[in-house]
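User: quick one
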Amino acid sequence: MTVIEASSQALSLNQRIRALVFSQEGVLLLITIVAVAALSALSEPFRSVENFLNQGRLLTEIGLVALPMTYIIITGGIDLSVGSIFGLTAVILGYTWQNLGFPLELAIITSLIVATIAGFINGWFIVRVGVPPLIMTLATLALYRGLAEGIAQARSARGYPDWFYQLGQRDLLGVPTQLWILIVAAIIAAIILARTPFGRSLYAIGNNETAARFSGIPVGRNKMLIYAFSGLMAGLAGYIFVSRVSTTRSDMGTGLELDVIAAVVLGGTSIFGGTGSVPGTIIGVILIQLLKNGLSLTGVTGDSTIVVIGTVLILSILVNNFIQRRSGRMSS
Amino acid sequence: MAAITREKFQRSAAASSADILKRLANQEVILLAAIVLLTLFVSLYEMGALGRAQPRFLSERNVVLVLQGNAYIAVAAIGMSLVIISGNIDISVGSLIGVLAVVGGNLAVWLDKNSLPVWIAWIAPLFLGGLAGAVNGFLVAYLRIPAIVVTLGMLSILKGGLISVTGGEWIKDLPTSYFLSQQRPLSGLPEMLGNPEGFLGYLASVIGQLPVPVYAMFILTIAAALWMKYSAFGRSVYAVGGNAEAARLSGLSTQSIVFRVFIINGVFVGIASVLFATQLSIIQSTVPAGVELLIITSAVVGGVSILGGTGTAVGAMLAAILLSAITAALLFMNVSPYWTKAFQGVLILITVLADIVRRRRQARQISG
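Assistant: Done. Structure below.
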């Protein structure tokens, strides 16, 4: 009896190791390491510490938006409106400060509240009215960007006081300020997803929403929460972006949703819902930024970089599918 | 006996009027009504608030522009409808239109220099579009990668590839014979009818001014609608989108159907790229921004359920026209063009909500 138990335990440990190596995160980590090694060998400036820190500054915005996007995609949903909320936040911040004469602190808070409400509106219609997430956020992608364009009327707001740039352009303890926010947010998001009943409920919703509802999970409330969270993080990213580039324009964050979804999917979150993790997403975000940076340093122009990212996205899923099919055959 | 017959008769009369109501309440009719209401509203606004004797919104020139504006979107939306009905999505269409427009433009310049027939530049994008569709379709259908991931990757590859290959250069000195979109097949119509007065004259003048893309839009939409409704393949696409497992068990090869749907979509995108490329005297070597969104929006607002299984090409065309009409309406009402997208967003929301309410009512009728 004990022998059987021990052997089954050993098997499960063995399986667990194999699962880790063969998981999307494992494959991705391997690709990332290979990419870093190759790029470091090819380019002197790539392997400098300043470069890595600077890349951390650049990936923060996508990273912040990718956290709630991971939650949403795990539940089987999607949020295409994040780029528009990002732009709307930037415009509201600039407009309330420069045109309505708000104190800058109040303008920041107002813009973040608007962003959260924008996300909550998505969630409310998806849950209460039953609009499919793809359609709802497609509509608000147009609506929120339209509001940003209408309010801004092609004006840009600039000339912020000096303290405003601390978040986007300066360092704290030798690390870009905004990178601290991403690190803390990612750790909290990872713990919530992996260790709390709320986080586990997201997987349950993604696997079988009806079953989740019948087992007493507040499906509607949890979904509205994550869409509002998505709005808030898109707003926060928009605020950090304004602080980094010192100006607001209504076209900010156009196409951001595609970068974010690419990072999340690259990180092993299934677009069909039910699986995924925050560490995977973070690796996806890092890999995309490393590729962008490394290729541009080795003389590849910015536009060819997008080609590589697209190819990596498709290939990583292909490889993952292949490995899972093989390991599935081995265990059966 | 007589009583029974009368009751039966009454019941069938009630059923048929309910049937007519149901048919009237479908998405195409809602969209047509929206276009008519919008036209009425703008015209009255122009005459009332702006004091114009004749609403400029209804001028021949504007009607033609509204129909022409989104014709290439409507054509691409036919392919998109098929893709979405089959339960998939393609977000690479905007990039593909950009790439094929540049390929077609360069080809036209090259053909003209070597005194070869320029119409080859109208045909080649169709094949290349089909080829790109085949790549997408192969990855989705046979390698089983989710369509949103495949086409997201393809979007990046096409967009980045286009700019890095061309360096963002514009194509100028296109041969005049290339400009398909400026040819007006029925320009002699008013003369043929003896320059009639009144409404008939107005109609003849509008039709006379319609360029090729508008005809392409109408003909392709009607052909696609009939084909999707009556051909075996068309029905099988609905079957796959409605319930892939059931379709497979009833003997349909779902993989080959999805593969072919993507190829057909690529061909429609190829046609759309020709309509797009031949309307301006220069072709920019960049991907037109947000085109995929307009195309998906047209398909979805046109009544294609994003969950697969339902939808028509006619609805998609009407939605594309409505989107184009809204842009023009705001212009004629002196609203800042920066508000256009916000109005489009509100409109998309309203039509989607109307569709959901209608579906619920139908579901209740079926279950009750």
